[in-house]
Amino acid sequence: MKKIKVMTVFGTRPEGIKMAPIIKVMENASEIDNTICITAQHREMLDQVLNLFQIEPDYDLNIFKPGQSLTEITMKALEGLEKVILEVKPDVLLVQGDTSTVFAGALAAFYQKVKIGHVEAGLRSGNLYSPYPEEANRKLTGILTDFHFAPTETNKDNLLREGYSIEKIFITGNTVIDALQYSVKEDYSFQIPLLDNIDYKDKRIILLTSHRRENLGKPMENIFSAINQIALEYEDIEVVFPIHLNPKVRQIANKIFNGNRRVHLIEPLDYEPFTNLMARSYLVVTDSGGLQEEAPSLGKPVLVVREETERPEGIEAGTAKLVGTNYDNILKEIDILLSNQKEYEKMANAVNPYGDGRASERIVDIILKHGFSKKQE
């Protein structure tokens, strides 16, 4: 029997994390011939994921350049992916999420009339500029997609409202839950002395991440100032902030957290130590999308420091709360979870709406069932 030729494309650490479990399932599927192509839109951070999951790309476009613009990323990815697609001639091209690599990958596949599978389809914030450029990327990718792998019922409803055929939409759960099963370990030992020496038993750890373009400037100053104040007020609180490589983020963080011994600014973590740190934290404060899905799987309340989110399921389920970027509101919401055990337990014990850890299996099964025939010219 002729194998289905799948081409898996990703370029950033979050894409790699969420695509890795699918690649691992395909490795054991004798009916699939999978070609892995990375753009390396992120370089060092993506390499960490490849090493963790023991993934060897067949093609590496290596497009990363410091300070690259969105236009440069898209053009270089589009040109490079076209060459690979012409050589591989896949039946299906898989992209994940909402980066510029995702949109370029889908567009390159469309130009060659190759079927497109979009993993994590149907997320919508309702604001084209927030998150930017992700909201536009995911909507543009959706137009070109043949298989919409929607994590939740809400994502499916978003796609149906936009006019996509129900026959092309498949609810799978989110593959990030699958990925957590590979990385979180009870006996994990950190290789960073600071993290290994924290008193996780008697201290409450707030894990902070913030890097969104739309939060740069005053919103980020508000976020960091509120966190700084909390760390000054609560003696049993320690904050760990794996600080993003963006120099603008670092400048704001260094200015606001300077001199606060309870706030630890550390370099970005590999995925494995990061998820194990999250598992040992008390609370997560973030403007990240993925953490809104991951933290609830570990029973950690999430305060989302953004004005809107494309992941309303967590808000509705009570695992996350959208608190915005106003200083007073952030301070108030963190204070509630630190001082009110009942409110904390309500969030920590809410049911995670993002899946059961078998999303990757479902996606591969759908490809096996539907993915062979080429698009008709």
TrEMBL record:
Gene3D superfamilies: Glycogen Phosphorylase B. Its EC number is 5.1.3.14. GO terms for molecular function: UDP-N-acetylglucosamine 2-epimerase activity. InterPro entries: UDP_GlcNAc_Epimerase_2_dom (IPR003331), WecB-like (IPR029767). Keywords: Isomerase. Residues 26-367 form the UDP-N-acetylglucosamine 2-epimerase domain. It is an enzyme of class 5 (isomerase). Belongs to the UDP-N-acetylglucosamine 2-epimerase family. This is UDP-N-acetylglucosamine 2-epimerase (non-hydrolyzing). It comes from [Clostridium] ultunense Esp.
